Automatic annotation (TrEMBL):
InterPro entries reported in the protein's UniProt record: CarboxyPept-like_regulatory, MMPL_dom, Mycobact_MmpL
The keyword Nuclease belongs to this UniProt entry's keyword annotation: no
Entry protein name: MMPL family transporter
Gene3D superfamilies, sorted: Carboxypeptidase-like, regulatory domain, Multidrug efflux transporter AcrB transmembrane domain
Length: 800
């Protein structure tokens, strides 16, 4: 497939461009139809909502507020009323607005004016819940109310529906992330064309994914957060997958391969790993389905589709683009050096090689240090509290934040999250009396009953996202309502948020077990090992704990929130653990696949665990760290989105990727694999026979040995750098694919002789205690080959 795409590059490019523009035209013509289907069956807040919908069909939706404040005088002044009343009347007449409760409507409205008379509010009750109210209606309400502003009169609006129309400029976060990724890619490659390749792949993958998701929103329920998360994950994986393939391709050209053969080899090795890694991300995302939270179904569809299209772009469009560039995928300096000095030798050098040697020499110390760092970062997760952010966490410049602050100033912090106790039977008077005497209740008001249902508005003394408000909800449900003998349920936005956090927390263990189990099975089949997938599962849990620790420290404890300009501290969004863990486990599996697949390739060739781990780390750590740095840039860019949920997800995922790549995959995983030794690759024989074969590495090609070619030999001496013979060294001859052909031990004078089936290219490996393993390709022609081996301590070599 790679060779066909390379040779028919113009056809492939035109197909992709046509598909992108075709989908874009279709999506823009059809428009969007995102639906936030949110339901929590078998919860108390859902029962309250169902009762309200039955008794008050036009007022069962969420309630938003219009707040105004005068700088001088009172809100009761005639001049103020003459500006506010007409605006409220126009809002009340809009289709979709169930009721408007004005502070100027008789004695009952007096409670909607603050004690000092400078702040007042009106309640707008929509016919539907906030996530179902049309945005056009909300925008009309917003514009009508704010038109009443004048000098000395501030008018602000708050509530869930109003918050939905305060979307930041589309594409800002994505553009910042792409620019940051471009800088990292240029520093890594030193070539403008090589830098543009991963960016192009990400743009095609994310663009087609978003357009497809938009079209699918007309046939299935997809929430409006799905495109944001799809672009978040799509940009990261699209750039990373292309980076891995382009790096392998550039390495092949530098070692003298023809550009076409190099591209085919890169796709047949790194491309296979990309296919496998993309599959693990999709499986991790699909793990969200076990939570049985309906609004996550659309998130799974949008994000998984974007990942699949990014993988498809990396494996078909990328080889076509490589065909257009040819050797220009290298920088000018590299091309000049290649022309002057010839192909580079296959070796690992630089910091990556030195670090790989250090990990091999000091695995216990490095593993202990990495564990201590991760444990310290994970400590805050012990105080994790799930909930929901409110308008108090919005940026200070938004109207919802200003309305929130005005209500808290005039009526107390609990006024921003009133509870709705919906009573369908029992003594309402006794229930109201008991609620009023409950600690933590600031105000209680019972609305006129309808169809046997009474709604009691309860204003807590604490803010909606405080733990005391959660405790008050539990007290009302578990003690006050049963004691009054009423058939009542506690609803409202605050109660819904609390129930959602409880449901998420209850289903989180099953979700984690599902995605860890699926990831374990995939790695088990791919690497034919029990220890490798167990290690990966443990590392994923460590990374999750540490990243959530960072999240708690920043957003729940407030460390650095002022620097990020994200408002005040509060609980962690209840939906975030499910989404973030899906993305984290998928991305962590990516790095594990790329790291261990190179180690496994070396293990198959040499059967030397120390060498396999050392070479795998030396050759992949740089590209993994570059990919992680790009991911961090993309995720942190979403702090600029203006959405607190997106910012929280961006910071959490950036921390998770950074810790996973820079500490776990670069230090802890290789150190643990050195300590485990050959047991890394252990698999019971009975299980090996029953497992399907799913190789990340390409299948070994047939040996280029003539059928009637004469048998030959490789012989020589194994000596130290000082010329001393090495007695008892293990000398092995392998095929290019890693199949062992012969093995002997060197004699006292260091001599050895290996039998060779015929002319061809083979791999010769030499291992001896206290010496570094040597492995080198040897070419045997018609006669015996004399090949002496020199062993040195601490030397790093890397054979592809």
């Amino acid at each position: 497939m790679a060779r066909w795409c390379y040779r028919h590059r113009l056809v492939v490019l035109l197909l992709w461009v046509g598909a992108l523009f075709g989908l874009g035209f279709s999506a823009s013509t059809a428009g969007t139809n995102y639906a936030n289907v949110f339901s929590l069956p078998d919860t108390d807040s859902k029962s309250a909502y169902d009762l309200m919908q039955k008794a008050f069909p036009n007022t069962s939706g969420d309630t938003d507020t219009v707040v105004w404040k005068v700088d001088h005088g009172s809100v009761r002044d005639k001049a103020v009323q003459d500006r506010i009343r007409p605006a409220l009347d126009r809002i009340a007449g809009m289709t979709g607005v169930g009721a408007v409760t004005s502070p100027y409507a008789g004695p009952q409205g007096a409670a909607q004016i603050s004690r000092d008379g400078t702040i007042a509010y009106a309640q707008l009750t929509f016919a539907k819940r906030a996530n179902e109210v049309p945005k056009d209606l909300v925008q009309n309400v917003l514009d009508t109310a704010q038109a009443a502003r004048t000098s000395g009169l501030r008018v602000e609006l708050g509530g869930q529906a109003i918050q939905r129309v305060q979307e930041p400029p589309q594409g800002l976060s994505e553009m910042v992330g792409i620019v940051a990724a471009a800088v990292v890619l240029f520093l890594a490659f030193g070539s403008l064309f090589a830098m543009l390749l991963p960016i192009a792949i990400a743009v095609f993958g994310v663009g087609m994914g978003l357009f497809s998701t938009q079209l699918l929103s007309h046939s299935t329920d997809i929430p409006d957060i799905a495109p944001l998360l799809a672009s978040l994950i799509g940009l990261g994986v699209g750039i990373d997958y292309a980076l891995f393939i382009v790096t392998r391709h550039r390495r092949g050209i530098l070692r003298g391969m023809d550009p076409e053969e190099s591209a085919v080899t890169a796709l047949n090795t790194s491309g296979r790993a990309v296919l496998f890694a993309g599959g693990t991300v999709c499986i991790a995302l699909a793990g969200m389905l076990v939570t049985r939270l309906r609004f996550l179904d659309g998130v799974v569809i949008g994000t998984s589709l974007t990942v699949v299209l990014s993988v498809l772009a990396a494996t078909t469009l990328l080889p076509a683009l490589l065909g257009f560039l040819g050797p220009r995928v290298l920088s000018r300096r590299q091309r000049r050096r290649l022309a002057a000095d010839g192909p580079e030798q296959e070796h690992a050098s630089g910091f990556a090689a030195r670090w790989s040697v250090n990990v091999e020499k000091r695995p216990r110390r490095i593993a202990a240090l990495a564990l201590v760092v991760m444990a310290v970062l994970a400590v805050p997760v012990l105080s994790l509290r799930l909930g929901a952010t409110d308008q108090g966490n919005d940026q200070a410049s938004t109207t919802t934040r200003k309305a929130y602050d005005l209500l808290a100033e005039g009526f107390g912090p609990g006024f921003n999250g009133p509870l709705q106790v919906v009573n369908a039977g029992g003594d309402t008077t006794t229930l109201v009396k008991d609620i009023r005497s409950t600690p933590g209740v600031a105000r209680v008001a019972a609305l006129p009953p309808a169809r046997g249902v009474t709604v009691i508005q309860v204003v807590p003394t604490t803010s909606p996202q405080s733990k005391q408000t959660d405790d008050l909800i539990d007290t009302l449900r578990d003690e006050v309502i049963p004691r009054a003998g009423a058939q009542a349920h506690v609803g409202g936005v605050t109660a819904v948020s609390k129930d959602f956090a409880s449901v998420t927390g209850d289903r989180l263990p099953l979700f984690i077990a599902t995605i860890i189990g699926l990831g374990f099975l995939l790695l088990l089949v791919a690497f034919r090992s029990l220890v490798v997938p167990l290690t990966a599962a443990l590392m994923n849990l460590i990374a999750a704990a540490a990243s959530f620790g960072v999240l708690v420290a920043v957003f729940q404890w407030g460390w650095g929130l002022d620097l990020l300009n994200l408002g005040k501290e509060g609980p962690i969004n209840a939906f975030l653990p499910v989404i973030m863990l899906s993305l984290l486990f998928g991305l962590s599996m990516d790095y594990q696949v790329f790291l261990v697949s190179r180690m496994h390739e070396e293990w198959v060739h040499t059967r030397d665990n120390a060498r396999a781990v050392r070479v795998g780390l030396a050759e992949t750590s740089r590209v993994i760290n570059s990919a992680a740095l790009i991911m961090v840039c993309v995720f942190l860019a979403f702090v600029l989105s203006g959405d607190s949920g997106a910012a929280m997800a961006g910071v959490g995922l950036a921390a998770a990727v950074a810790l996973d790549a820079f500490i776990l995959r670069t230090a802890l995983v290789p150190a643990a694999m050195h300590l485990l030794g050959d047991s890394n690759w252990w698999l019971p024989a009975w299980l090996d026979k029953r497992l399907p074969h799913l190789a990340v590495e390409p299948k070994e090609e047939a040996e280029a040995v003539a059928a009637d070619g004469p048998a030959s030999a490789v012989h020589g001496f194994v000596r130290t750098a000082d010329g001393e013979p090495v007695d008892g060294a293990s000398v092995t001859l392998l095929s290019k694919g890693g199949r062992r052909l012969d093995r002997v031990r060197s004699l006292a004078d260091g001599s050895y002789i290996l039998s060779v089936p015929g002319p061809g290219t083979y791999l010769l490996t030499v291992t001896a205690p206290s010496y570094a393993t040597r492995a080198q390709q040897v070419v045997v022609e018609t006669g015996p080959l004399v090949y002496d081996v020199e062993l040195a301590e601490g030397e790093v070599d890397a054979v592809n």
